[in-house]
Amino acid sequence: MNIFERIHVQGFRRLHDVDLPLKPLNVLIGANGSGKTTILDVFTLLSASASGDLKATVSDYGGIDSNLSALNSVAGDKARFARFEVDKSVPNYAPLKYAISLKPSGTSYEIPDESLTQHSDPSKPDPMKYIESIHGRVHYFDPGEGRLVSPEWEHDSHESALSQVSRMYQEPNNFRKGLASSTHYHVLDVGMRAPVRLPQPMREAHLPGKDGEDLVSCLFWMREADPDRFETIEDTLRVGFPGFDRLNFPPVAAGTMAMTWKEQNFKHPFFMHQLSEGTLRFLWLVTLLYSPGLTEVTLLDEPEVSLHPELLSVLADCMREASTRTQLIVATHADRLVRFLRPDEVVAIDVEDDGVSTATRADALDLDDWLDEYTLDQIWQHGRMGGRP
After folding, report:
1. Which residues span the domain enclosing 209?
2. CA quadruple 294, 297, 301, 304: dihedral positive or negative?
3. CB under 8 Å to 119, separation ≥6 — which residues?
4. Looking at the domain assignment, is residue 375 inside a domain?
5. Distance between CA 174 and CA 182 in Å, rounded?
6. Is 263 helix (H, G, I), strand (E, B) or coil?
7. What is the tens place of the pLDDT at every residue in 160-195?
8. Total-model pTM
9. From the CB of residue 290, how many other CB atoms can be counted at a distance below 10 Å?
10. 68-83 pLDDT, tens per residue?
11. Is 284 inside a domain boundary?
12. 77 and 157 housed in the same domain
């Protein structure tokens, strides 16, 4: 699996200058307000940059000006721009490197610079440039021409050149598609009228949906088309809930189906609206993490919400397995979840005295002696990893 190897953020909220190596599984720990969710939001912005939704996403975040780092909280000084860089591995070649800057301009923003490069030939001092944009002057490498050319289309200055270049080599195009597919999952809504609790229209679904709106369809499709995967999900549920027996899918009306949860000691099954919040969230998480349609990057915010502590070891195993098929970036407050992780899977986010955040991978710290006597969550609680609990 080709992964994003590094992300570098400058001038965005508390992330004034954070350069973070990435691995297949990245679990971000730290106090409230330390910047964990901000890292997920940065990936969402980069995904929007690749998919042509940058303007709408920046608007959803309240504009670039309101998200710039405060360099001096007393004077109210802000960074002049936000810059985002991300590197992605390419088999047998140097990584692809993408960078984009956003700067306030009136009530909106401008893109002062953007690039997509690859330094594949070490004998040449300059990297291969697939995209180069400086103050709106866009050039991209046209494979047919064999050189950098200006766009022949009307360029939208509020969207990235990455999302608008139509002809690129396969690897840069795969980079764009992979980044654009990145999906951010927030805490699942499990209110009584939430989509996850209601009967759902039947359709082929390879993911359960951000709001669980396709959970029934996804599980039913897997039972029919991929029974081994469906059996793995049911086996995982039995580990977490020893009394669980099976899932059933009774039809409700033409084209609509419900789902029931059958337990061994109960004659009648439970419908979705009867399940507890923790049971529903765990069912959705397990289905998501075993889904065949996982995008290249999956962003999970606080997956531990409502889960019994004993379920967190199962969740950690599910995340580790999923990270062989998608790059996972997870923000959590749960020290019990950290107990079941390895140092190479954990990133500690701290806030310094000046109010800006730092990010440190736990495997970069000297924890071997501590791990001889303590679990990873205990080391975190003792303050040896940073990312104050």
Report:
1. 185-294
2. positive
3. 94, 97, 127, 128
4. no
5. 13
6. strand
7. 999 999 888 899 999 999 999 999 999 999 999 999
8. 0.94
9. 22
10. 998 755 445 778 999 9
11. yes
12. yes
